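Case study B.
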Amino acid sequence: MQQVIRDKALSLLEAGKVDRVLAWKEGEFFYDQTPHVFKTAEEINRSLVYNGFSAANLSKYLVKETLKDGMIAVFLKPCDTYSFSQLLKEHRIPREKVWAVGIPCDGKLDIDRIRKAGLRGITSIREDGDRLSVSTIYGEKTVAKSDALAERCENCKSRKHIVYDELIGSEGEALDSGRFDAVEALEKMSPEERFAFWQKELSRCIRCNACRNACPACTCEKCVFDNPASGIESKAPASSFEEQNFHIIRAFHVVGRCTDCGECSRVCPQSIPLHLINRKFIKDINEFYGTYQAGENPDERAPLTNFDKDDMEPADAFRKGE
Amino acid sequence: MKKIALQNLPKLFSAISESKALYLPVDTESGAEFRLYREGDTLSEACNTNRSAKDFFFPQVEDMAEFKVEGKKIEVLDIRRESEEFVIFGARACDVKSFEILDSVFLADPVDTYYKNRREHVTVISLACNFPEETCFCSTFGIDAASPAGDVAAWIIDEELYMTALTEKGEAFLSAHAALLSDADESKVDKKKEEIAEICHRLPLQNLPVEHFKAEKLMEHFNDPKWAELSQSCIGCGTCTFVCPTCQCFDIRDFDTGNGIQRYRCWDSCMYSDFTQMAAAQPRLTQLERFRQRFMHKLVYHPANHEGTYGCVGCGRCLAKCPISMNIAKVIKEIGGEK
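Model:
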């Protein structure tokens, strides 16, 4: 697949259809890829990669990249197309400046899960069907691919590409995933247990803002938390209240727009399951206003920006929480 | 040289924590973290904790003073307290070296009394790295993972922990716990050091071309066109700076309590758009400039101002944690390069 994607990137550049290509650049160890804007065939042949660790969602970079002149090509996995579609809907990306190529994905891998399995000094990884051959400083190891899948891929919501100009490979379907199981487990907890759960998770937050800065739904030019004039700027979690405040405010701000791409949890250096907060909101929306998937339908009105006489009364939502 | 069987470590930990606060790296669901010892805790084998050991001396948030306001009267309350005596058990060579780098900043005139207060009350028991990771490159900066500094250096060999004192504080520590320790000879430790050196030799990033960075080439490095490409994907979060054991920038803020001011400081990051608000504004307007600043500081400015000591210890946390896997190793290769 990597070669197919390289060839596509090369032909788009050569035909003059685009003048840059947004994809993943190889790192030192196979797993440490960096999103990158490729401008030459030489660069593409040398370092454009696509494999189990091409996990970063590239769609948010288009906000910045489309401010520049010219056309840019981007490779989007199914879940990335939901983010792209949502950003188009929010008028954050001018559609005509992007050539979107949908690419297949059979789940991305999480290096932390491989490390957690006790593998140290990982220097390279080879994908052999459903096994991973891992070379380490301490010898060769194998890991089942299913044991190394990222959480968001274990609970993949869709293999369908929502929006693209051309597609590599065949189109997939939206899937019945178990992504709300963990939310249900949280809902079943008593308020005290749930509070303790989040207190434990969020107390690890170091306010590095990686979740916010990676989030395709967080595209404010200036975040209130970075704005000294906002009165609520905060650089550090001065108290447990502030930790919760930041994450809850952020979740509220992206509610109805979060496509559940999972970048927040992927990038968190403290392994906080931030996606669960957003999934709770998604699940609530599904229950309050009918099933809704942000990014799925470019023409549909979002439940929270739409009014319908059948809408749930706020008081009902409040009672549901009791 | 002293030693203790690993199975007796809980006894040693209990003994230490009777007189001092003991912190050690323990495994948690989300990785290893330094934590106040609780009975039953075991020493993590992880090379790195998620957060670095700088937290002990330079916590993320710290109250500095309080101001009580009554009408037109302002009273300044000194809230500083003498730090408790504490022990860090199991700090790695890279983190221990970072203390020296932090010292050169915080203990230089004018001395940072908040930092000094904690720094003076610590005893550091370092631990050699039996299993360095691929992200480790401490040897690039002349740090020996097999012979960590600190007050006491320790090695885990088979089922025993070997310890040797490197300072007076270390001597005092070993003699305070002499009842639990037995004498040992150096031969096993020497052999272990050779083993670790052999592993370090095989590390892919063990010898990054850092020597190409020179103060006299400051402007050349500064104007290198490669910064644009390296920084283009940086999302401007503060992960690298916050997990870094040597990043030491902070902001001082006032919190309005309603009847006064709580003045605190907190970590700040040169990667942030609201870093260093000067009289006018943040002088580094784009992520390129912010990104460049971080690496120029570590690789050029810091050594220029501190007799050649780089502002990086090669712990590899930023390599493991950066959301987009752009990091100092890649920067050293590209900018320092094999030119």
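Chain B has a mean pLDDT of 95. The remaining cases will be described in the next quarterly update.
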